[in-house]
Specification:
The chain is an all-alpha fold. About 70% of the residues lie in helices and about 0% in strands.
Length: about 80
């Protein structure tokens, strides 16, 4: 039996009619959504913050990041959005 015949036997023997599409797997969809949200968040940060600030924040521990968020929120309280 040659290689092509073996390959054909394998393809014909496998039944993929009950296989799930990649878009119907909940965990995969959740990972895709999370990746998309992360990309959107990064794009927003790149437009708002300077590159050196983004670099610095990305290399801080979680405690420092939380503190920076609190400081930013403090400034947000004193300078509300224009209507």
């Amino acid at each position: 039996m040659n290689k092509d015949a073996i390959f054909e036997d394998i393809i014909n023997a496998d039944d993929f009619s009950t296989a799930k599409s990649a878009t119907t797997i909940p965990k995969l969809n959740a990972l895709r959504e999370r990746a998309k949200l992360k990309e959107q968040t990064q794009a927003i940060a790149n437009n708002v913050l300077d590159d050196d600030v983004i670099y610095w924040l990305n290399h801080q521990d979680n405690s420092t990041k939380r503190h920076i968020n609190e400081v930013i929120r403090h400034f947000m309280a004193f300078k509300p959005l224009p209507i």
